Amino acid sequence: MSSRLFSLSLLLAALLLQGCAVSRAKIHQADLAVADTIDRQLTCQQADHCAQPSPLLQAADSALAQSTPEQPVHVVTLLDDSEPALAARVNLVRAARKSIDVQTFIWAQDDAGQLMLNELVQAARRGVKVRILADQLFSFNDLDLLDRLVRASVNLHVRLYNPTFHNARTPPLEFAAGVICCFMKFNQRMHNKLLLVDDSIGITGGRNYEDRYFNWDDDFNYVDRDVMVAGPAAREMADSFDLFWNHRRSVPLTHLRDLNKRILSDAEAPTWRPPQYRRPLRVAQVQQAAEDPSWLHAWLVAPGIEVGNVDYFSDMPTKTRAPKRARAQVFTRHIMHMIASAKREVLLQTPYLVMSDQAQKIFRRLHKRAEPPRIVVSTNSLASTDAFAVYAMSYKHRKRYLTKFGFEIHEMKPHAVAAAVDNELANLGMDSPTPAPETATPASARQARFHLLGSRGSSSRPAPLLSEGRRFGLHAKSIVVDDNFAMVGSHNFDPRSDHYNTESGVIVYDRHFADELRSSILRDTQPENAWVIAPRRPVVPVLTDINQAIGTVSEHLPLFDLWPFRYATSYDLKAGCQPLLASDPNFFNCYRPVGDFPDVALSPKLIITRLITAFGVGAKGIL
């Protein structure tokens, strides 16, 4: 009875909160209070707002000057390594002459988040028009920070996308209430990532603004990827950003209930404060790199590739309100068209191998061809992911992926050699050595953020391991099709990306770029970096056939997938052997089975993974 009363109270509170928008009068009062106290100082009086010289922006100017509508010219740079990805952002912000637009899913208050936010504030104070659009659920979850940010500069404008119950913060109970009362609206998030400077050069891909996206977390970091695009495609980025910025779900800060109340109750207007970095030497090193001509040339200019056609795609902000409209899911539909057109090979890299119904149909048709294309998939293992609930759905459908779609699946190891090497290489060549760790906040002291089924939140932690050492998880989302064109973006190729979240990315129609991206993905599938998923070795033919038949029936049950002996498991390459396909007759001679969840210690997350595999089929769209 008490649980029913609690649920009823929660629902009633949710319905009340849903209607409690801030009145126009209070918005006007808060706007006046901000206008009276906002920082109007300009640190520069020059026409270019004291923009620093940048070879990246110079490349954009040159590409735009050479471009015609019939023959566009772009310079594209793959940002696989963490430090160049962050230094490129700092360099472009400092080089901005007119405008900076930033769109993101997560903005944390750690070193990486503070660094970028402070750089943007300083750019606004130079006179550059700066607009920040962040998804509310996992960004700026601090009223004190927002109270300072709203007054930091007259040229700085911040909006939060799809705020829960018109608030800047979402405590756990309001999270639960949002799920109960208005699931479709609450569950739709803005997953786009974009940094656009002067409408001429942009960075898009998988990275959010948090330490773990730039190899700055002490325990767990992401292997991620962006692409920097200079040229006419930046105009498409600008149009997309404007659509989101002007949409009614993008809410100015003074319109948020909790922040509005804070602003009106301030006895004294707070001012912008310099960041207090946990590891200031490391921050200084990136800032130094962002201004070092030789470093910029080696890591960001020389790797650039001049190409012709580049398309920037983004779903519409109205995606969940108009799912049948082609324009609402323009990016999702284009990705599906890319895959369906494959002739020889598809390389797919995604952190979450959970296929939507539409994707399953496409891969099933490809596999039924007389000469099906090769499908190579790079994804996470349970040991490398922080989204264990999502991984459970991938684990559940391994047999389908291997037999019906013909996938070659490689699951990332938590201590992947390539990840560790890439994230240290950019430190070489700096005048000062990589700084030693300063005072660190233990992982156990981090505030865990409530998130549905424990997955995909900015502070979620992966399952405990048997091994020790710094660990990595895959977060990059990319496709290469037939070596002809390639995509880098935010789309995870899963039901959530298909139907709920808005996504964005670029498609580059160039063989050289496709080859570079292909090499990057394949490197993550090498034996030192990933386990191979393959069928279990048949030991007793009849019993093996019976086990597989029971497992197939169990997998297709609507709720209760309880059979513990799965069709496939993880394999590691034996010393002295060369990598082989699972279909090779010598596969079992060169690979040894390492279990369904290698390197994962017995823990609640491991148990929950098993339970979600058994009972969680209905949650696939949510995950």
From TrEMBL:
Keywords: Signal. Coiled coil: none annotated. It comes from Rhodanobacter ginsenosidimutans. The keyword ATP-binding does not apply. The keyword Signal applies. Residues 186-213, 470-497 form the PLD phosphodiesterase domain. InterPro entries: PLD-like_dom, PLipase_D/transphosphatidylase. Gene3D superfamilies: Endonuclease Chain A. This is Phosphatidylserine/phosphatidylglycerophosphate/ cardiolipin synthase family protein. Residues 1-25 form the signal peptide.
